[in-house]
Design a protein that fits this description.
Chain lengths: 508, 352
C-alpha cells in the first residue's frame, strides 16, 4: 500500500568548489514505498541523501517532511525527526553487544536504562520485521551481513519513518542480500518509506516500487518499476547505450609467467586461509578466481604481492623463486597489484593526486636529480597519466580523496598500466563502480591480456568472469574446487563448486 | 535564543588551517587578558609590556631569540613525528639525554680543538636523543605500545638519569648538582648579538635541510606517504616499520640538539634546569605549524615572545609566574578547540 507523501525535496542545489553536484533536484517519497536511487559514481546520490539527513545544507531549495518544512541544525536532528540512514561504512561500536549498540545514544534513554523493558521492546521489533539476531553477541564477532541488520534494526528501534540504505549489498553474499531484500520489503509494508541507493540493476527490479535516476547532478527521471526495463535505466544512467559483451581475441600464450606450488598461507587470526594451492598463469591469459568473499582470495593475493608471509610452498615468477622477496622487490620485478580496497590501500587519500600517481615509480633512476627527486619530471609523468586515462579531478595538487570512486580506480589502473608489468593481480576491480567506469576497467584488463600480460582476476561478478576469463578457478575454503576453461561449466555448476563441491563430483 | 549550525567541510587548505590557528591564538590572548585583569593588572599594559620587553631593546630581542633556538629544535622534533602520525611527547627527555651524551664527552674525553670538539658534541647530542627515542620506537614496533605513554614516562626517567650523574660522578667541586663549567673548546661561539649562539645557525640550516628532505627526496616522499596512510605506504612497497623507526630516531636526534644548544650555547654546564619545559612547548609549536618547517621558526619565535615577556611581567608588574604557563595552556586549548572549525562550517543563528 503506497500512501501519502513522507518526503518532498524541491529544487535542491548544492555546489562544492564551484562544481554543481546537485542541480535543482526534485525528489519525493511516499509511505510504504521503496524507491531506488540509481546513478553512476559522482552522480550526486550520496550528496542528496546527506542533505536529507542534515550532514550538508542545500545551497538552494526546501525539504518538506510529512508536509512540514524541515529545519536541520545538527546531523542528529534528522534522525530524531524520523529520517535514518544506514551508511556504507557501519557506525557500530565493535566491542559492545548488539543490545548495547541498539540503545546507545537513543534519545529516550536518559540516565537509568531499564534493560528488561528495552529488550522486550527490541524483541517486538525483531519479531515484527523478521530479524534473527542474538542481542547479547559482541558486534565484532558477528558476520558482516548480521552487522548490517543491526544497523537497520538500530534505525527501526528509533522509530524512523524514512530509512535510507546506501549500497547495502556490496559486502553481502547472494543469500544475505536476498534476505535483506525481504526485510526491506517487510519494513516498507509496515508503512515506512525506504530509499535504496544502489548500482545493481537486479536488486532494483527485485525490490523497488519506483526508481529515480540521477546523472551528473541532474535528475533524469522517476519511473515506476512496471513501466521500465534494465536497458532503459542503464541508458538513463549513462546517457548512451552500453556494450557489455566482450570478445576475447586469440593471443599468443607466453607460458608460465607465474607458477604456484603447494602454497599454504595463514589469515590474520592464524587460521589456514590458503590450503595447498598449485596453479600457473601464462602470459596473454586471464585466470579468474571466483568464490564467495572470505574464502582465501585476499590472502592469496596478499601472498602473491608479498604483503603476507607464505606458510610453505613456492611462488615462481618468470622462472625465478620469489617466495621470500619483499613487496618492494616484487614491484620492481614486474608484479602489479590493483587492490580491492581502493580508498585505504590503493591511494594515500590525504596526499595529492600527483603524489599518488608516482607511488611505484618515484625511486626509478630517471626521476633522480643528484641526491634529490626530480619533482618537475614526476609531475609531468603524473599529468601524462591523467590525460591518457581521462581522470576527472579538481586539481593535480589536491588530495586524492576528492576523486569519485570511478576516477580513483582510473588513477590506480592508469598508474599500474603505465608501469608495464608482466603480472597483474586485480582484486574486485569493478566493485562499487558505475557502468562507465566498469567498462573502462574491463577494457583495460582485456587490453593488458591482449598485449601478452598474465592476469589474475579475483571477482565476484559473473558478467565479468564469463566476459573476460580464459580460465576460471573456483575457490572455496582456501582450495580450488575447480579449475577449467571458460565455457566448460555453467553458472549453476560453478555455484555448486563455490559451495564446496569438487569438480570431479559434479554430474554433467 | 541562539542555535549553532554545524556543517561538515570537505577539506581545509593549509592556508585556512593557519588562519584558524591565528584566530585561536587571538582568542587565547583575550582570555589571558581577562585572567591578567582578574589579577588586578591592566591587560593592555601587560601585553604592551610583553611587546616592549621583547622589541624595546637589543637585549630583550636577543634573549627572545635565545629562547627560540631550543623551541625550533623541539618543534621540528615533534612535528616530523606528528607528520608520520607519531606522537612524540618525549622531546623533553630526549633533550636531556642529548645533553647527557654531549656532557659525557666533556667530562671523560680529551679537550680537542674547538671545531672538532663541538662537532663531536653535536653528533653525540643527536645520538643521545636518538637512543632515547629508540626505546619507545622499539616498544611501539615490536609490542604495539602506545608511544604517547612511553615517551611521556621516559621523560622522567631521563631527567632522573641526569640527576644521577649530577648528584654523583659529575658533581662540581662546590657540591652543588651541576657539572664544572665547560672549557672554551666546548662552548658555541656567540653571534655578536647578546647571548644568541651558533645553535641558531644550526637551527636555521636544519629547517632548510628538513624542508628539502621532506619535499625533494625519496626519503621525504616515503615519509609523506607513510604519514598519510600506513596501508597505502605498505602497498607501495615501503617498509613502514623501518620508516617509523627512522622517524623516531630523527625526532629524537632533533630534540637532542636542543639539549646540546642549551649546554654549549647558554649554560656552559649540565644542570637540572637546562630545559625550561622546551620539550613540551615544542608540542604546541609543532601543532601550530604542522607540515611546514619554515612556519615552525615563526611559531617558535612567537612562543618565545611569550616566555620572555612573561618573565618581565613577573618583575615589572608583579604577576605570578604561572601567568606564562596559563597563557601557553590557553593557546593549546584554543588551537585544539579550533579543530572544530577545521572540520565544520559553524554558524550561529537566532532561533525563530
Amino acid at each position: 500500500m503506497i500512501g501519502e507523501f513522507l518526503v518532498e525535496m524541491r529544487n535542491i542545489s548544492k555546489s562544492f568548489f564551484g562544481i554543481k553536484v546537485n542541480n535543482k533536484i526534485n525528489f519525493t517519497l511516499r509511505k510504504g514505498e521503496i524507491q531506488a536511487l540509481l546513478g553512476e559514481n559522482g552522480a550526486g546520490k550520496t550528496t542528496l541523501m546527506n542533505m536529507l539527513t542534515g550532514v550538508y545544507f542545500p545551497d538552494e531549495g526546501d525539504t518538506f517532511f510529512k508536509g512540514k518544512k524541515m529545519v536541520l541544525n545538527f546531523p542528529g536532528d534528522a534522525l530524531s525527526m524520523g529520517i535514518g540512514m544506514v551508511h556504507q561504512r557501519f557506525s557500530l561500536v565493535g566491542n559492545l553487544t548488539v543490545f548495547e549498540n541498539l540503545i546507545l545514544g537513543h534519545p529516550k534513554n536518559k540516565f537509568i536504562i531499564n534493560v528488561a523493558v528495552e529488550k522486550i521492546l527490541i524483541q517486538k521489533y525483531m519479531k515484527q520485521f523478521d530479524f534473527h539476531i542474538n542481542l547479547d553477541a559482541i558486534v565484532d564477532e558477528l558476520p558482516i551481513g548480521i552487522r548490517q541488520k543491526v544497523e537497520i534494526l538500530k534505525m527501526l528501534v528509533r522509530e524512523v519513518d524514512v530509512l535510507i540504505v546506501d549500497e547495502p549489498t556490496t559486502v553481502l553474499t547472494k543469500q544475505e542480500a536476498d534476505n535483506l531484500m525481504q526485510i526491506l520489503r517487510n519494513i516498507a509494508n509496515s508503512g515506512k518509506g525506504i530509499i535504496f541507493i544502489t548500482h545493481k540493476m537486479s536488486e532494483v527490479f527485485q525490490v523497488a516500487n519506483s526508481i529515480t535516476v540521477l546523472r551528473k547532478g541532474e535528475k533524469i527521471a522517476t519511473v515506476n518499476k512496471e513501466e521500465t526495463t534494465p536497458n532503459e535505466l542503464a541508458r538513463m544512467m549513462v546517457g548512451k547505450e552500453h556494450n557489455t559483451t566482450f570478445n576475447l581475441p586469440k593471443t599468443k600464450k607466453i607460458p608460465e609467467i607465474l607458477k604456484i606450488e603447494n602454497l599454504f598461507v595463514n589469515s590474520n587470526n592464524g587460521v589456514l586461509a590458503v590450503k595447498n594451492l598449485s596453479f600457473n598463469v601464462a602470459g596473454g591469459e586471464i585466470l579468474s578466481i571466483a568464490g564467495v568473499t572470505g574464502n582465501g582470495q585476499i590472502e592469496l593475493a596478499d601472498a602473491l604481492t608479498g604483503n603476507r608471509k607464505v606458510g610453505s610452498g613456492n611462488i615462481k615468477f618468470k622462472n625465478r623463486d620469489i617466495t621470500q622477496h619483499s613487496p618492494k622487490k616484487r614491484i620492481d620485478e614486474g608484479i602489479s597489484y590493483i587492490p580491492g580496497d581502493r580508498i585505504n590501500v590503493g591511494v594515500a587519500g590525504n596526499r595529492s593526486v600527483w603524489e599518488n600517481l608516482i607511488m611505484k615509480v618515484y625511486r626509478l633512476p630517471k626521476f633522480k636529480k643528484g641526491l634529490l627527486l626530480n619533482n618537475v619530471k614526476l609531475k609531468k609523468y603524473a599529468e601524462k597519466i591523467i590525460q591518457k586515462y581521462d581522470i576527472m579531478m579538481p586539481g593535480i595538487n589536491l588530495p586524492a580523496l576528492l576523486l569519485s570512486g570511478g576516477n580513483l580506480q582510473k588513477l590506480i589502473i592508469g598508474r599500474e598500466i603505465e608501469r608495464d608489468c608482466d603480472l597483474y593481480i586485480c582484486v574486485y576491480p569493478t566493485r562499487g563502480l558505475d557502468v562507465g567506469a566498469t567498462e573502462f576497467v574491463r577494457n583495460s584488463i582485456l587490453n593488458l591480456r591482449n598485449k601478452g600480460k598474465a592476469i589474475i582476476l579475483i571477482s565476484g561478478d559473473f558478467d565479468e568472469i564469463f566476459g573476460l576469463s580464459d580460465r576460471i578457478a573456483v575457490m572455496c575454503e582456501g582450495k580450488f574446487t575447480g579449475l577449467f576453461n571458460n565455457g566448460d561449466y555453467s553458472l549453476e555448476q560453478i555455484g555448486l563448486m563455490m559451495s564446496g563441491q569438487e569438480i570431479e563430483n559434479l554430474e554433467n | 535564543m541562539f542555535r549553532i549550525k554545524l556543517e561538515q567541510k570537505e577539506r581545509v587548505s593549509k592556508q585556512q588551517e593557519l588562519i584558524i590557528n591565528l584566530y585561536a591564538i587571538a582568542f587565547a590572548l583575550i582570555l589571558s587578558g581577562i585572567f591578567i585583569a582578574l589579577n588586578g593588572a591592566n591587560p593592555f599594559v601587560a601585553f604592551w609590556k610583553i611587546l616592549t620587553s621583547v622589541f624595546g631593546s637589543r637585549y630583550g630581542f636577543s634573549e627572545t631569540l635565545v629562547k627560540s633556538i631550543p623551541l625550533i629544535f623541539t618543534g621540528l622534533s615533534v612535528a616530523i613525528a606528528l607528520n608520520s602520525k607519531i606522537w612524540n611527547i618525549g622531546a623533553e627527555g630526549q633533550l636531556f639525554f642529548g645533553a647527557i651524551f654531549a656532557t659525557a664527552f666533556v667530562i671523560y674525553g680529551p679537550v680537542l680543538p674547538r671545531p672538532l670538539m663541538l662537532t663531536i658534541m653535536v653528533l653525540l647530542g643527536m645520538i643521545g636523543g636518538a637512543v632515547w627515542a629508540a626505546i619507545p620506537a622499539l616498544l611501539k614496533i615490536k609490542f604495539k605500545m602506545n608511544e604517547v605513554i612511553s615517551t611521556l614516562l621516559l621523560n622522567y626517567v631521563a631527567i632522573n638519569i641526569a640527576d644521577y650523574f649530577l648528584f654523583g660522578a659529575w658533581k662540581g667541586k662546590d657540591n652543588f648538582p651541576y657539572t664544572p663549567e665547560f672549557p672554551l673548546e666546548a662552548k658555541f661561539p656567540r653571534l655578536n648579538f647578546g647571548r644568541v649562539h651558533f645553535g641558531f645557525i644550526i637551527a636555521i640550516l636544519l629547517v632548510i635541510l628538513l624542508y628539502i628532505i621532506i619535499y625533494h627526496t625519496r626519503m621525504g616522499y616515503k615519509l609523506r606517504l607513510t604519514g598519510s596512510s600506513l596501508k597505502a605506504a605498505k602497498y607501495a612497497g615501503i617498509e613502514i616499520k623501518k620508516m617509523m623507526f627512522l622517524v623516531f630516531l630523527i625526532s629524537g636526534a632533533l630534540a637532542g640538539l636542543a639539549g646540546v644548544g642549551q649546554i654549549c650555547g647558554i649554560e656552559y654546564k649540565l644542570h637540572q634546569h637546562i630545559s625550561n619545559g622546551y620539550g613540551y612547548t615544542g608540542i604546541i609549536v609543532a601543532w601550530l605549524a604542522r607540515s611546514n618547517p619554515f612556519v615552525i621558526v615563526f611559531f617558535a619565535f612567537f612562543l618565545s615572545i611569550l616566555l620572555k615577556g612573561v618573565d618581565s611581567l613577573q618583575i615589572v608588574m608583579h604577576l605570578p609566574a604561572a601567568v606564562g604557563v596559563i597563557i601557553q595552556s590557553l593557546i593549546l586549548f584554543a588551537i585544539l578547540g579550533g579543530e572544530l572549525f577545521k572540520n565544520y562550517n559553524v554558524q550561529i543563528l537566532r532561533r525563530k
